[in-house]
UniProtKB/TrEMBL annotation:
Protein name, as recorded: DNA starvation/stationary phase protection protein Dps
Family listed: Belongs to the Dps family.
NCBIfam families hit by this protein: PRK09448.1
CDD domains in alphabetical order: DPS
Gene symbol of the encoding locus: dps
Domain Ferritin/DPS: 26-164
Length: 166
């Protein structure tokens, strides 16, 4: 259930106009919530996958979770650099992220693969929208951060989705 939450901003001498910085921080905090949610869902899959493909999937999902932490950190640090207050609290993550929820009853490998592929594809779509919005706001550096994260998400999406083919 994605909502718009107004994030406080700090005084800064950053050269971007206030409106641009504020728009970028809102985008960054929204995608931060998504990255945290991806990481939590990847850990859910990591802890609960079962079956003959257990070990490679267990390791793959753990890798996605670690990458999600890195993506979150990159976006949070950009928001802080813009004078924004970074909001990665659990309540904010739940309120801001509208990624598909993860069912707790999943145990089979195919179910986890399908769900993680869906989550990564949804995150990728949101990142593409944020790339466009950051560009329209006039913030090429934030646009670049989203592009970097989108490339990495797409690679993890490929690794997960490859398990559904062949």
């Amino acid at each position: 259930m994605s909502t718009t939450i107004s994030t406080p901003h700090l005084q800064t001498r950053h050269t971007l106009p206030d409106g641009t910085r504020h728009a970028s921080v809102e985008l960054l905090n929204a995608r931060l919530a998504d990255a945290i949610m991806v990481g939590l869902q990847a850990k859910q899959a990591h802890w609960n996958v079962r079956g003959p493909r257990f070990l490679p999937l267990h390791e793959l999902f753990d890798s996605v979770a670690e990458h999600a932490r890195e993506w979150a950190d990159l976006m949070a640090e950009r928001a802080g650099a813009l004078g924004g207050v970074v909001d990665g609290t659990p309540a904010s993550v739940i309120e801001r992220s509208d990624l598909p929820t993860y069912p707790t009853e999943l145990i089979d490998a195919d179910g986890h693969i399908e769900r993680m592929a869906e989550v990564l594809a949804s995150f990728s779509r949101r990142l593409l929208g944020s790339i466009e919005a950051a560009g329209e706001a006039g913030d090429p550096a934030t646009e670049d951060v989203f592009t970097e994260v989108a490339r990495a998400v797409d690679q993890d999406f490929w690794f997960v989705e490859a398990h559904t083919q062949g």
